[in-house]
Specification:
A hairpin with a 2-residue loop joins strand 6 and strand 7. By secondary structure, the chain is of the alpha+beta class. The radius of gyration is 23 Å and the shape is elongated. Strands 4, 5, 8, 9, 10, 11, 14, 15, 16 and 17 form a 10-stranded mixed beta sheet that branches. Strands 1-3-2 form a 3-stranded antiparallel beta sheet.
Amino acid sequence: MSEVTYQFTFTETQCNRLDKFLVACLPDYSRSRLQGLIHDGFVTVDGMIPEKAGVVLNTGQVVSIRIPPVEPSNILAEAIPLTILFENEDLMVVNKPAGMVVHPGAGHTSHTLVNAALAHAPDMAGISGEIRPGVVHRLDKDTSGLILIAKNDRTLQYLQEQFKVRKVSKTYLALVDGHPPTPSGRIEASIGRDPSHRKQMAVVSPPRGRQAVTEYHSLEVFPDHELIEAHPTTGRTHQIRLHLAFLGCPVAGDLVYGKRHPSLGLKRTFLHALRLSLTLPGEEKVTTFEAALPEELERVLAELRQNK
């Protein structure tokens, strides 16, 4: 792919801040991407490189921008099978299995969902200047269920905004050890980094953490466990696991925030991203996706029901 150049003339009817003007002219590119190009000298105003992305434009000024070719990512594409529930030119809705890490990082440089997505869709458009899939939100390694992957910068920006303004509805199923204090409720407890264990999160006082809200209600009660439907309205790291542990009923199989020895012989956390409801790019109505509970979790429920 070769470099592409665009040229626009500013009028007084448009936003006069350079980066916002370019976002309006080039909606397929995120504001952060365009700000990076301004910073790197790919944008001129009347032939001069601006000092900053927020420079104010005057009527009649000509803005030129060069979009460099997309750079190859250093992330390796791997032909790992994926369960894709929906796909179009903009995004994929994937049913992630437990045990799969979402994206490469320290200790997980391969065999991730991102590696698999790159192999499935090798012609993904550049996101932030690289050929790579856009992770819109995340699931813990041992959490199964629905996750969105954006295929281009425009869709990534759109979906992230949907999450930011809380227009995406998420539903999780969790089997907990013990019982919550009430059959339904709303948990409001800030979450931040655990000062004693830097790789873990914790419920902390508001100045040290970020607001986190989870609503829940009980679906089925067993002698020592309860099946919970959880609806997080915020998206903090480990939120549902922390909030349910905060109530005194940690997710079954959670060795970090729950019991040190898992109940029911579980080899993973009993947490599943069951349902996602959102408005897809270019559409007006809300679309709902659902991923059935994995077989290994269905077996646990079947045993609990048999022993009631």
